[in-house]
């Protein structure tokens, strides 16, 4: 969008305790309570008062979940500018990657909710969160509302918007000025996304016309699951990965890095009950090679 927005962001996983403690100390030092909602005017390492309005807080949702949020008020016209709820993907990634880098403070007092994350639960909690948040911030009820996210949020954002829209149709209060949703680099389904890698790489001139045509012919456009007896397709896929072995698949202009994920995130990914149940299938049996990373900026990709 070409205009400033009120930026609302909520998070799910505690990853960097140091920053959490620093923020709590900062809030406590200035007499705020780290619950409900607090205005943050100073942050450790930043000289002077923050040059923008920053609010943090918790909204209780579901059975026993407390969702932490950051709210940054638009520096344009906050009374009229759109309100944007941003949901970073994952699964297993904190929402603050979109704002600062890999921390989050949400928690639950029900261990089963933490041990068995669910897309359905996130959809329900996100819809409940935004209605409760706007109930506490009624001055923004008339602002155009957009739900946005990247990566895995491509799976959860559309049903969140659908749930909010149905709620409006049923007269659930507060009524939301819901305008739409925004997705960046979204996940859709494992089969569709993985099949799209080859034409996407070809369209970006990362592989030759000859290799693309040979892949398309031998694999018949199906690169997600490959018949192990189809040696021509298997060999072409190996050539494809070899061509892209030095390229960062998430951003071809950045250096290639090994994908690092914390054990807890990998475990959560394996246990996650998904909206799309067929995503456990992998792209044949061929794994992209892991390469050394000379310039690392993130410890893992979300």
UniProtKB/TrEMBL annotation:
Q: Name one GO molecular function term.
A: serine-type carboxypeptidase activity
Q: Please name the Pfam families in this protein's record.
A: Peptidase_S10
Q: Which residues form the signal peptide?
A: 1-26
Keyword list, A-Z = Signal
Q: Which InterPro entries match?
A: AB_hydrolase_fold, Peptidase_S10
Q: Could you tell me the superkingdom of the organism this chain comes from? A: Eukaryota
List GO BP terms, alphabetically. proteolysis; secondary metabolic process
Q: Which protein family is it in?
A: Belongs to the peptidase S10 family.
**Full protein name:** Serine carboxypeptidase-like 18
């Amino acid at each position: 969008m070409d205009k400033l927005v009120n930026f609302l962001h909520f998070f799910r996983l505690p990853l960097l305790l140091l920053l959490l403690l620093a923020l709590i100390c900062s809030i406590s030092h200035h007499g705020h309570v780290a619950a409900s909602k607090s205005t943050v005017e100073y942050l450790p390492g930043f000289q002077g008062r923050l040059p923008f309005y920053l609010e943090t807080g918790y909204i209780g949702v579901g059975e026993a979940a407390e969702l932490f949020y950051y709210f940054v008020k638009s520096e344009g016209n906050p009374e009229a500018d759109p309100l944007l709820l941003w949901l970073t993907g994952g699964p297993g990634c904190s929402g603050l990657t979109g704002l600062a880098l890999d921390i989050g403070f949400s928690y639950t007092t029900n261990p089963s909710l933490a041990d068995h994350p669910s897309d359905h639960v996130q959809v329900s909690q996100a819809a409940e969160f935004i209605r409760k948040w706007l109930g506490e911030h009624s001055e923004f009820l008339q602002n155009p509302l957009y739900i946005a996210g990247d990566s895995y949020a491509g799976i959860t954002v559309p049903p969140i918007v659908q749930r909010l829209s149905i709620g409006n149709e049923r007269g659930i209060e507060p009524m939301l000025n819901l305008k739409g949703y925004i997705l960046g680099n979204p996940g859709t389904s494992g089969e569709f996304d993985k099949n799209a890698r080859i034409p996407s790489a070809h369209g970006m001139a990362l592989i030759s016309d000859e290799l693309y045509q040979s892949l398309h012919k031998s694999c018949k456009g199906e690169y997600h699951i490959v018949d192990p007896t189809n040696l021509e397709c298997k060999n072409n896929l190996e050539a494809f990965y070899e061509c892209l072995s030095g390229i960062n698949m998430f951003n071809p202009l950045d250096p290639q890095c090994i994908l690092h994920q914390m054990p807890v995130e990998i475990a959560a990914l394996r246990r996650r009950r998904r909206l799309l149940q067929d995503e456990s299938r992998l792209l044949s049996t061929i794994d992209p090679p892991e390469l050394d990373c000379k310039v690392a900026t993130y410890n893992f990709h979300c």
